[in-house]
Amino acid sequence: MAYHFTNINMPADMNDQYIPEYRSYIMQNPEADYEVRSTVLDDSGEFAVSAVTFDKYEELIWVGNSGGHVTSYYGPQMRKYTAFQVHMTDEIRDIITLDLGLFILSKSQLRHQIRRGIPRHTHTSENMIDMQCIFQASQTKLLMGGHQDKLIDFDVSEMKESIIPIPEDGCAVLRSGGGYLVACGSANGTISLRDIRSPVKAEHTFKAHTACLSDLDVQGDLMITSGFAQAGNMAVAESYIKVWDVRHLKKSGSWNLPLASPPLLLHFLPSVSGRALAMASAGEVAMLNINNRSESDKQSVFQVDTQGSSCTVMDVSSSSQAFVFGDQGGHVYLFSSKHNNEPMFNNFSRETQFASPVRLPFAGFSESFKFSSMPLPPIATGNRWFHELPDEFFKKIHRKPKPIDPEILKTMKMKGPIGYAPNPGTSRRNEYPYIDDTMEDLNRPNTNEDPPVSVKPIPSEYQKMDLRFNKTEPNEVLERCNRTGLPGIEATVPNSYCNPMIQVLYNMPPLKSTLIAHTCAKEFCLTCELGFLFRMLDTSGGAPCQANNFLRAFRTVPEAAALGLILPDRGTDRKIDLVALIQSWNRFILHQIHYELLETRKKEKELAILAQNASTPKPRVKTHLKKQNGQIDDYAYTDLEFLSPLDSEHELRNGLDEKWKDTKVDEVTLLNAENHHNNIDKELSNSKHEREDSEISKLFAIARQQLNRCLKCNKEEERESVVLACALQYASNRDSERANSGFLELVRASLCARRSTPAWCERCAKFTPTMQRGRLVRLPPILAINCGGVSAEEKLFWAKGTTKETTEAVKRGGSAKPCRYGLHCARPGCRFKHPDRPTSSPQNNTKSETQDTSCVIPHQLNIRLQSDGDIAISDKRELSEKQDLSKHKKKSTSQSEAEYTLTAVILCIEDNPRNLVAYVRVADEDVHWYLYNDLSIVEVSEEELLFYGPFAYCNGPVEEDAKFMR
């Protein structure tokens, strides 16, 4: 703790006659118990050392100087670890180390940095005027004091401060002995004891020294102080320390321990009871026994050779094996006992992170060595090494043919296509002349060469692997494929295609906790089986697991069989479309878990009612039942939209409309269809009031309103719909704006879909063109997106991106001609002019002809829900670069905003056989991306996720399912 005081803390009549200390040279005892181990000159040796402390968690020493610079040293040899600048002008007043980093206090700011030197947070406020000391009151609370009439209570978790007014003349020292009391020492000699739990009011306040306080320390119930006494108009340094018992401050007072020289800094030894260090400014250090007053003359004294500079700071390690001192000359001294050459700073220190060493290949003189095996350091972008040859020297070209002698051409006689000429004898047999190649010959394209192969080989991490885990024998191949310590899932049956999606659900903490906590009495409950599988993955310790119980229950669900999600045990000739299969499985499992949770909650309520009203008859509960294969199922899908790429439940009726629009129907058929639509509307209206939310719907549900408007009579109908997964709706080639848009515009158009389709109108009593528009009501915490990739156009969209072309209307020159149907036109992408549709100018269409759009999944999404139900979606990085965040705060409060981070991507690898893999984002202390391929798990980078994985290693459909999480 550094000794900080200014002239304003001394009496006005004593400034001119102040005697700072008494310097006397003491011969060092040759039998001293402690000696110097290391001495270093701190960075920028022109500045004095103003703060020094031992790290409580690692073998580090942190040193701050009066120039605002902080340096750390590792181990007893004091090897330099990190160095960084905290403030340009102010000195470092105090340093405190926590598990999450270190907090550095200067005169007017508090800096939070990690141990590698990266700053995390800088706190400044108008209440920080002349700060001096900092103290850790709890795991999340810090106390800061200075030459001001207030203490600052700082919350580490929220990075906020609160003010505690104090009547004393500032607080220069903050110390605690491990109890509930903290000692606040003022520069004028006043000490106040405050309760850490409520430090607003002081428990005890007394005058320890008449003139000034230099330092204090507390251990248990004992407190030691040193300072200056007032002698007339002068302040004289006291050559003793005062010992206080905080339990009997009023009765026994204090007693004195005399020293050979006036002490300036004090510090208790943490691991030894009743032992303390007292250091004078000239460098004399005495080891004191506080508990035994009779042994005051048997003090162990040793000298710190400061070369005439005054010692300013001191600290003791938590193990009490090492002491560190700093002086005004910028030197740092490490002391330890004579018999301990390798002192430990902490009894249980964790390992310190160091940079990976650069390991160069070794080659002996007798070995063959290639210079190309030596790695070269990186250079700036656009520059090249001087020894690199141009690209034209690496082209593969054929040898030039031997030129024909002109004499042969003169004497040649042609017989049909064959020419004959005598040998002129100008060259020997098999002699080939040297032909000099010029640069023009090298740059000339060769038509005989084969076209380069653009398809890169698929790495082994993405290919289908036939690996089995054996408990009795060593698994060397498996250990090479998975060195992350994360558990994999075996692929032993054909239905194991869902393993990547199971890993995605397992790495979602809210969903994982919900499934693990679920229990019910149903025999084949997928929620129970998934929760059991997740618990087994948690307790496996990194060993592979099997999903046989879950897959066995999955095969018994009739809805899964009806949807074609269950594959046969034996292979068939038909080619399985894994792209559509995994997306259907994603929608199915979310809906299945949703209804199983609701069914369990419903049964629990019934059992609770029966338990409370045991004497009353059982109330009749209205349920929706349906028959399948002659049996009654105990739950039905009525609330949520299930396995339909359409926008809402009302789209089911539109499917019937599409089926009947080109056929002739009689009045009976139309009447039956109308009754069918009315039944659907009644069921949806009932489900609107009876709808219940489960943990799944709270996480994944996208609530929106479907607005249908008849283009002939303008009748509007509004229905609510809820979906758990957003299916991307790709536009046809006729809709050039949608077809040539990127991923962000595609997601926006899919969440708030607009389209025109024939549908039944009750007012018109026939099928009429209907404009359908989706209005988003609520954004989910987890946004699940099924990216399609089934048709050839969708595959091309993901494999190569899209290129905007000139619209058909501009090519034909008919964009100005009005449509004959006007407002009643139901043709999507009509090339004629409509009154309610804006026409694109030829200039804009010509500009879009050269504009390219690559489809890349962004790492973060920013979605703003507007008051009219529409959304504005953008990449968060682009938003932070191009727009000012203050503009968004000034917008109307009717808009809500959500930020999503990409957490998982499912890929389909076009190989033989095809394979499904998953990219999963795991955030523990740091964020890491892992590639899950059944039992093979490898760590990948974000660049491979966003670029190399989807495009360089896969030929065809790639992003089949993407999940964004807030």
Overview of the molecule:
This protein has 20 helices and 48 strands. With 966 residues, the chain is an alpha+beta fold. Among the domains are: 7-22 and 46-264, Methylamine Dehydrogenase, Chain H; 406-442, no CATH class; 640-690 and 701-778, no CATH class. The radius of gyration is 40 Å and the shape is extended.
Write the layout of secondary structure elements.
Elements: E1 34-41, E2 49-54, E3 60-65, E4 69-74, E5 79-85, E6 92-98, E7 101-106, E8 110-113, E9 119-123, E10 131-136, E11 141-146, E12 150-155, E13 160-165, E14 173-176, E15 181-185, E16 190-195, E17 202-207, E18 212-219, E19 222-231, E20 234-237, E21 240-245, E22 254-258, E23 265-268, E24 275-279, E25 284-289, E26 300-303, E27 311-316, E28 322-327, E29 331-337, H1 406-411, E30 413-415, E31 418-420, H2 439-443, H3 476-481, H4 499-506, H5 509-516, H6 526-539, H7 548-555, H8 558-562, H9 578-612, E32 626-628, E33 631-633, H10 650-660, H11 667-690, H12 695-700, E34 702-710, E35 716-723, E36 726-727, H13 736-739, H14 743-751, E37 754-761, E38 766-778, E39 782-786, H15 792-800, E40 802-803, H16 808-812, H17 842-848, E41 852-853, E42 860-865, E43 871-875, H18 876-882, H19 885-889, E44 896-909, E45 915-923, E46 927-933, E47 936-940, H20 942-952, E48 959-965
Parallel strand pairs: 36-39
Antiparallel strand pairs: 1-29, 2-3, 3-4, 4-5, 6-7, 7-8, 8-9, 10-11, 11-12, 12-13, 14-15, 15-16, 16-17, 18-19, 19-20, 19-21, 21-22, 23-24, 24-25, 25-26, 27-28, 28-29, 30-31, 32-33, 34-35, 34-38, 37-38, 39-48, 40-41, 42-43, 42-44, 44-45, 44-48, 45-46, 46-47
